[in-house]
Amino acid sequence: MGTKGREMVGNKVDEVIDLLNRALADEWLAYYQYWIGSKIVVGPMKGEVMTELMEHAADELRHAELLVTRIIQLGGKPILDPDDWKKLTNCGYDAPEDPFVRKILDQNIKGEQCAISTYRKMMEMTKEIDPITYEIALEIMRDEVEHEDDLQGLVEDLENMKFLR
Ligand code: FE
Ligand code: FE
Ligand code: MG
Question: Which residues constitute the domain of residue 47?
């Protein structure tokens, strides 16, 4: 922990750490949802969807890395027990019980939309008090916006396939 770095954030520092930990829970759950989804997905455009899901899984893991680094910098204690993922998550976990592409894409789109709102809130909360966390939230949100767009693009392609018949 950098003492001056922590002091700079002021009396809301524990609140910032809490938001970071909640987002960390989201990222791990999102990582797993994408990762397991990429293994089981079936249906049209399966190969393309699988590749996209794997890429997104890697991005979510990178987001977890950014968050945990910031938590430690601020002198916080990152989540140590996976049991806490489900307790702290903002966006939850949608088990891909139905492996059909469309269903998996819809579940992940919902997750991305929740992630966008979560980082939006983190940005609002940190704007005036913690420019470093603000910048991390912005960087992550940029990816989440791209993720949503990619997944919706795949849904569109899938929909357009019916015109081929
Ligand atoms: Fe993410
Ligand atoms: Fe994402
Ligand atoms: Mg992508």
Answer: 11-164
